[in-house]
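Task: sequence design from structure.
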């Protein structure tokens, strides 16, 4: 995945492309287009993608729990589901919203599994490195209450300078120019999702601009 584009192929239940078959085809299109990795949500989607795509997969399971703010692979249940299907890298919410004891246990219980920390601040990224995460991603910058006013490029650049672990640029790097800049700053890789794989949002951008 290093120095390449990772395409996030996800469609939630309320979205028009919600289908494991469609996500697999989306991942195949990304592979043909030159992607070096795929980020995918749910066991069903990942298994379908694995059938036809030969790229490393960053796997997650998004799950909302009533008393939890964290929703990206938030508990042992989702983690073990991903472990059971041999995902190359498992990404988890590693913000202050996550269960710290759960995060501390990952490398102890699964020393051979690669993990990616989805963080929203520099402090969370530095903590993730100390916890032993293999990759640190800026996935949640601007999406947590405490990072609403944060700049994704500033967080990215600071983590690249301060961390020894690979830093993955993810979250609103939604143009080729932004992705290239992230790479020039020293990112291990860049993840792009909605700008490539959510046609309803791509369409909406065009319509908004035309209606100005």
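Answer:
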């Amino acid at each position: 995945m290093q120095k390449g584009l990772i395409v996030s192929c996800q469609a939630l239940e309320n979205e028009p492309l919600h289908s494991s078959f469609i996500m697999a085809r989306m991942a195949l299109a990304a592979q043909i287009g030159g992607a070096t990795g795929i980020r995918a949500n749910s066991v069903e989607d990942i298994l379908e993608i694995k059938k036809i795509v030969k790229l490393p997969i960053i796997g997650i399971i998004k799950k909302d729990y009533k008393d939890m703010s964290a929703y990206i692979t938030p508990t042992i249940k989702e983690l073990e589901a991903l472990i059971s299907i041999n995902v190359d890298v498992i990404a988890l919410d590693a913000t202050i919203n996550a269960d710290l004891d759960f995060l501390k246990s990952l490398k102890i219980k699964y020393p051979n599994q690669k993990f990616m920390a989805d963080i929203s601040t520099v402090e969370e990224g530095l903590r993730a490195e100390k916890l032993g995460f293999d990759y640190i991603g800026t996935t949640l910058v601007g999406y947590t209450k405490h990072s609403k006013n944060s700049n994704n490029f500033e967080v990215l650049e600071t983590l690249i300078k301060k961390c020894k672990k690979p830093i993955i640029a993810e979250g609103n790097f939604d143009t080729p120019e932004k992705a290239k800049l992230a790479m020039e700053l020293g990112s291990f890789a860049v993840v792009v999702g909605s700008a490539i794989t959510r046609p309803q949002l791509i369409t909406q951008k065009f319509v908004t601009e035309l209606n100005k």
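Residues 27 and 33 are 10 Å apart (CA to CA).
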